[in-house]
Design a protein that fits this description.
This protein has eleven helices and twelve strands. By secondary structure, the protein is α/β, with parallel strands linked by helices. Strands 1, 2, 3, 4, 7, 8, 9 and 12 form an eight-stranded parallel beta sheet that branches. A two-stranded antiparallel sheet has the order 5-6. It is globular, with a radius of gyration of 19 Å.
Length: 281
């Protein structure tokens, strides 16, 4: 259908474990990139994650995009019995992880001493195929997380502000168009001179190809405390005909600089004509 990559999440629901599943997808294809959206840093020690990621990149012949996150979904932590620390602590821990993973990918022996992790004389092996390392994807909706992403990531994804820890109307409201403008300003400020080298993207959480998008937007809006126009303007929703959705994606690229778009798996077939029109443009 023309998609460039398959990304998988990292939660404890009814879904496959991402490491084995991504390797299976890579092994069944020759060009498809694979990626994590995103590995939860709190589930794996950074050395373990770095070794798994390097192995995925090696065995897929350099097709891995490495997405890492600070963790956000409270239910995952409760079900698994993992302590759910403050957002600041989780993000600080992730920042150390990014440094450790980059050192691991660099090869050779390295050490690291931080507040959360201590690495002593570890050999970074195997080496990933992609140099200096697989593209690192970081994202979020709060200023601290997006600033970290702007400083460290190759791909920065703009998301909802996930401080709520669960999906609810308050969380979804943080994805409105005006809020997205503010998030881009935070990224630009933190990125400085490296901003032009960053690939910006976002995830579409709801997509529907329909001839009557106004009616669907009107039906969805009240449950989120929105006006129908807010539904249609929100980057994380795609509603309309093939032509309308194509135009919306072009407008979002023009307004925000988004070039990396992730769509939900259940919408891949209906959105395939749009992929054919826009891929590589």
């Amino acid at each position: 259908m023309g998609y460039a990559a398959l990304y998988l999440p990292d939660h404890f629901g009814e879904q496959p474990g991402p490491v084995a599943a991504l390797m299976s997808a890579a092994d069944a294809t020759t060009r498809l990139r694979i990626g994590s959206l995103v590995f939860d840093n709190d589930y794996r020690h950074p050395v373990v994650l770095a070794k798994e990621a390097a192995t995925l990149d090696l065995l897929s012949a350099g097709r891995l995009d490495l997405g890492i996150g600070a963790g956000w979904m409270v239910s995952d932590y409760q079900q698994a019995g993992i302590p759910y620390d403050s957002a600041g602590t989780r993000i600080d821990r992730l920042a150390e992880t990014v440094t450790i993973i980059k050192k691991f990918f660099g090869g050779g022996e390295f050490s690291f001493t931080g507040k959360h992790y201590s690495i002593k004389g570890l050999e970074g092996a195997p080496s990933p195929v992609q140099k200096p390392h697989p593209p690192i994807l970081l994202g979020g909706g709060g200023r601290k997380m997006l600033s970290l992403a702007a400083r460290e990531a190759n791909i920065v994804h703009v998301n909802y502000n996930l401080n709520e820890g669960r999906i609810n109307p308050k969380l979804v409201q943080t994805g409105m168009a005006e809020a997205t403008d503010e998030k881009l300003a935070w990224i630009k400020e933190a990125a400085g001179d490296r901003f032009d080298a960053i690939e910006l993207g976002f995830t579409v959480f709801f997509a529907n190809v329909t001839e009557d998008r106004e009616s669907l937007a009107s039906a969805l809006a009240p449950s989120m405390g929105f006006e129908p126009r807010n539904v249609l303007e929100m980057p994380h929703f795609l509603i309309g005909t093939v032509e309308q959705i194509e135009e919306d994606l072009k407008l979002r690229r023009e307004r925000y600089g988004f070039s990396d778009v992730i769509v939900p798996g259940e919408a891949t077939e209906s959105l395939a004509p749009i992929v054919e029109r826009l891929a590589g443009s």
